[in-house]
Amino acid sequence: MSYLFKSRVTSILLILLVALYSCKGIPGADARKYPPNPKERVKKNLEEGRGFRLDNAISGSGKGGDFMFASANELWRASLDTIDFMPLSSVNYSGGIIITDWYSDGNNINESVKISIRFLTNEVRTDALDIKVFYKKCNQVSNCKIENKTGSLVAELKKEILSKAAIYKKQNKDKNFKPYKGRAVDTTR
Fold first, then answer.
1. 68 — pLDDT class (breaks 50, 70, 90)
2. Number of domains in the chain
3. Are 117 and 130 in contact (CB under 8 A)?
4. CA 161 to CA 83: how far, in whole Å?
5. Whether residues 103 and 168 fall in one domain
6. Is the per-residue pLDDT at 131 higher than 60?
7. How far apart are CA 134 and CA 132, in angstroms?
């Protein structure tokens, strides 16, 4: 075998290994949620907007090239909507973190609050967020005490974010729903 042939075979095998390694399987696959009949699965996937439709690709109305980035992530959008009254200090979508700047409601300028939200997963579930709330109390400009508080504010923030994210997820699912216009599904097989 020639060197050129060996290098091509090695390249192809390397590409296949990378492709197989990057496949994580069906996200959130649950046998109870997916019908066992392949035709029914195709119908369900196409109706939910997860399939490839040739008519969208030809007409140009498909989603190819239409990048929504963070606006497509329900948890991210819900978090930003929940803390939209606070100034943001650092926001990193790829790093999965939102950090607000110190915020005071104006009643007491010696007390401020800062919120940090870390995203542990993109799925809408209770353990998807790590929220930290910091309180700062100052006696003078240079004499401040900062504490990490856990309690009702963290629970309320998490509840508010998750409820908004669930609404966004349902709206997105409803928006992507298109009835399947293929051949009738034969369920007798």
1. very low
2. 2
3. yes
4. 9
5. yes
6. yes
7. 7
